[in-house]
């Protein structure tokens, strides 16, 4: 099951301006394609920054896909593991960050921000829900010029796919309203 390219997320960096994580938005991963597996053998766990484990819910969509939902309890970097019959699905574990943010916060997430394979598409999503007016720009610098494609999902997110032509370290720059977003530039290691 190739999940690395099929994962989408509603919001991976979420929270409230006052740092109250109890008011943060739930994290929702959807459209995991599991047509050829027994969904009853699917298990998801989240390791919180304090190393405690938590259990997200898995919802069958009755169309060959499932949605994994999680309500964050603490700020920081979380690790989501999705296993089928005790084995990680491709792309698992997934890392996401929960932060206390104000309205207008723009975030990015996805495997294409940290790694890729030369000649193959790497993808990530930029979430600019409630960010207000401002242009979004994506630039990638590295050992060779990468082809970049952006698709407006019409829900406040933008799906970005890029193809690194050669192995090496690439830097993914994401700007909103001419300012680098949090953690940009992202360092992506590309294998040959």
TrEMBL record:
The keyword Repeat applies. PROSITE patterns: FILAMIN_REPEAT. Filamin repeats lie at residues 41-98, 98-190. The keyword Acetylation does not apply. GO terms for molecular function: actin filament binding. InterPro entries: Filamin (IPR044801), Filamin/ABP280_repeat-like (IPR017868), Filamin/ABP280_rpt (IPR001298), Ig-like_fold (IPR013783), Ig_E-set (IPR014756). It holds the Pfam family Filamin. Signal peptide: none annotated. GO terms for biological process: actin cytoskeleton organization. Keywords: Repeat. Belongs to the filamin family. This is Filamin. It comes from Plectus sambesii. The lineage of its organism: Eukaryota, Metazoa, Ecdysozoa, Nematoda, Chromadorea.
């Amino acid at each position: 099951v190739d999940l690395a390219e099929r994962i989408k997320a509603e919001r991976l960096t979420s929270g409230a301006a006052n740092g109250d994580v109890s008011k943060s938005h739930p994290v929702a991963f959807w459209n995991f394609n599991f047509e050829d597996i027994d969904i009853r053998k699917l298990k998801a766990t989240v390791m919180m920054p304090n190393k405690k484990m938590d259990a997200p819910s898995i919802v069958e969509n009755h169309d060959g896909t499932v949605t994994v939902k999680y309500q964050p309890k603490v700020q920081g970097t979380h690790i989501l593991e999705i296993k089928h019959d005790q084995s990680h699905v491709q792309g698992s574990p997934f890392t996401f960050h929960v932060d206390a943010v104000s309205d207008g916060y723009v975030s990015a997430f996805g495997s294409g921000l940290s790694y890729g394979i030369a000649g193959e598409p790497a993808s990530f999503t930029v979430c600019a829900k409630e960010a207000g007016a401002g242009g979004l720009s994506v630039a990638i610098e590295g050992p060779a010029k990468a082809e970049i494609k952006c698709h407006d999902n019409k829900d406040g997110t933008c799906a970005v796919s890029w193809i690194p032509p050669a192995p090496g370290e690439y830097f993914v720059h994401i700007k909103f309203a001419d300012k680098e977003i949090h953690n940009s530039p992202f360092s992506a290691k590309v294998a040959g």
